[in-house]
Amino acid sequence: MFGLMVRFTCKDESAAAAFDDLVARTGEHIRANEPGTVIYTTHRVDGQPLQRIFYELYRDAAAFETHESQEYVIDFLAERERYLSSTEVDRLDLVSGKGVGVEH
């Protein structure tokens, strides 16, 4: 398994709403076209209205590379910048877990 946790901070509330819309549109494509993407979730952070946390889990590094090469992901990566003031990315190495596709 290959995973990411990403914390996004939006510029303001209108940017957060536009970012959420972009995420929803992109998520439709991910669900429809990426069998190697096991989990792709977005969360609002309680008490932090401008923050979003993404948790992404891929079958393997190749599935992540496939995800990153999709035109809709490339478009997402380019468009998101207009809504964000910061992005923090952590690459994750699965140790143990329970869930779809998790065998540890």
TrEMBL record:
It comes from the Bacteria. InterPro entries: ABM_dom, Dimeric_a/b-barrel. Gene3D superfamilies: 3.30.70.100. Residues 2-94 form the ABM domain. It holds the Pfam family ABM. GO terms for molecular function: monooxygenase activity. The keyword Transferase does not apply. The keyword Transcription does not apply. Keywords: Monooxygenase, Oxidoreductase. Transmembrane segments: none annotated. This is Antibiotic biosynthesis monooxygenase. It comes from Streptomyces yaizuensis. The lineage of its organism: Bacteria, Bacillati, Actinomycetota, Actinomycetes, Kitasatosporales.
